[in-house]
From TrEMBL:
Record PROSITE patterns: INTEGRASE
Gene3D superfamilies for this protein: Ribonuclease H-like superfamily/Ribonuclease H
Pfam families: rve
Name used for this protein in its record: Integrase catalytic domain-containing protein
Domain Integrase catalytic: 3-135
GO BP terms, alphabetized: DNA integration
GO molecular function terms listed in the Swiss-Prot or TrEMBL record: nucleic acid binding
Native organism: termite gut metagenome
Length: 135
């Protein structure tokens, strides 16, 4: 089913499933990183960042970095039901993590987590993740 998306309406964010390896330039050590992905569905402009973890602090910083990269703030941020953004997931109404809710309040947008067990709700970000792993 084809969905129409309005410009500036939503930013879908998620972490890719598998960790990736990077080489620390200073030490030469191989490190495991999480891959954060944010995508604007109308233009499909995508932001990708390697992070040390999926912890709340890393998610908030990556989300802020995505907003800076995109040079704007959408009306709605749509995260997956990950612990760093959602305290209690639900099929119908999730309880947001207080710090992530504060981020949205600071930027003047709303957070509406994707419904649990409904991958089509965030199909574009899932598709972006697949493209990243193929690259």
């Amino acid at each position: 089913m084809h969905l129409e998306h309005k410009a500036g309406d939503k930013l879908y964010i998620d972490f890719a499933g598998d960790k990736q390896s990077i080489v620390d330039v200073e030490t030469g050590e191989i490190q495991q990183v999480e891959i954060f992905v944010g995508i604007l569905p109308c233009s499909q402009l995508t932001y990708v960042e390697a992070l040390r973890s999926q912890k709340k602090e890393d998610l908030i910083k990556a989300t802020e970095n995505a907003l800076l990269y995109l040079e704007g703030v959408p009306q709605v941020i749509v995260p997956d039901n990950l612990k760093a953004a959602v305290t209690r997931g639900s099929k119908y109404e999730a309880l947001l993590n207080e710090d992530f809710a504060s981020l949205a309040e600071h930027y003047g947008c709303t957070v509406i987590p994707a419904r649990a067990y409904k991958p089509r709700d965030k199909a574009l970000v899932e598709g972006a993740v697949k493209l990243i792993y193929r690259s």
